[in-house]
């Protein structure tokens, strides 16, 4: 190969290498461009998701009136099964802990009948547990449950269900209205009676008479929610005391101790007596009511705040200057 051919070969090889390099660079640049575009598209997608995510979350998580109805239905269904189970256990002669009572022979059932009745009671008990699981799932839709009630010792799913299912925090513009609705207002309120019309409509008409806010008065509809008061004062209060939580330690025990020395009078078994002279059960119930009122006071503030609603002091604080 002479010098001219050799030089030509070198130039051709350089040209081929240059072309390969250009092709490789173009492929690399094209890939980089695609990566950049994919990155931009990915970021746009993320921005879009971030923008729409809160709206979707708020829409999904904000409870509706249908959610409230579901809570109410489950709580009452559990109460129905519990009532049936207790009645059947009583007929079988079983105590609350499942042990047998000492029955007379005249009350004893045949063995095969006892087995049937036991299966009914056990089925009711199983339904209670299943409903509690369902209720817990629905309660998680409510911010007041997740952010507040869940963290109060002594408040279980059933108590939370009663609270969320019965109270309307939008109507409870003051804690005093919550106290009245729960039957914890001993003051006077306007009495009402029920009027049933021929077309099926029901109307509640004021009678012009003032009645006790925490008592049943003949001829008048109940001025409070009886089932709710039972759930709060009859069940939840015992849970607070059993758990020895904040409300029991700060309000129940000090208030009961104060009543044991209190000389002011109260109507007891139709007679005016000093608090220190009434029976222990009377003072115990009074202390429980006071404890639950203080719990509802905190609940009112927390619930209204979570829902973005204005919070007002109680009537006793705003107008009477009372501080608890």
Can you tell me about this structure?
The chain has 324 residues and is mostly helical. The chain contains 10 helices and 4 strands, in the order H-H-H-H-H-H-E-E-H-H-E-E-H-H. The protein has helices spanning 3-61, 65-92, 111-139, 143-147, 157-166, 175-181, 226-243, 246-259, 280-306, 315-318, and strands spanning 188-196, 202-212, 265-268, 271-274. The strands form 2 sheets. Strands 1-2 form a two-stranded antiparallel sheet. A two-stranded antiparallel ribbon has the order 3-4. Helix 2 packs across helix 5. The protein starts with a helix and ends in a 6-residue tail after the last helix. 21% of the residues are buried. Residues 50-59 have low confidence and may be disordered.
List key phrases describing it.
about 325 residues; mainly alpha; two-stranded antiparallel sheet; two-stranded antiparallel ribbon; 10 helices; 4 strands
Please give a quick description of this structure.
Helix 2 packs antiparallel against helix 3 and helix 8 runs antiparallel to helix 9.
Distance between the termini: 112 Å
Structural class: mainly alpha
Largest beta sheet: what is the strand line-up? 1-2
SSE ordering = HHHHHHEEHHEEHH
* Low-confidence residue ranges: 50-59
Largest sheet: 2 strands, antiparallel
Please tell me how large the radius of gyration is. 35 Å
Helix content: 55-70%
Quote the average pLDDT: 84
- The portion of residues forming beta strands comes to 5-15%
Count all strands and give the number: 4
SS summary, helix count: 10
Shape: extended
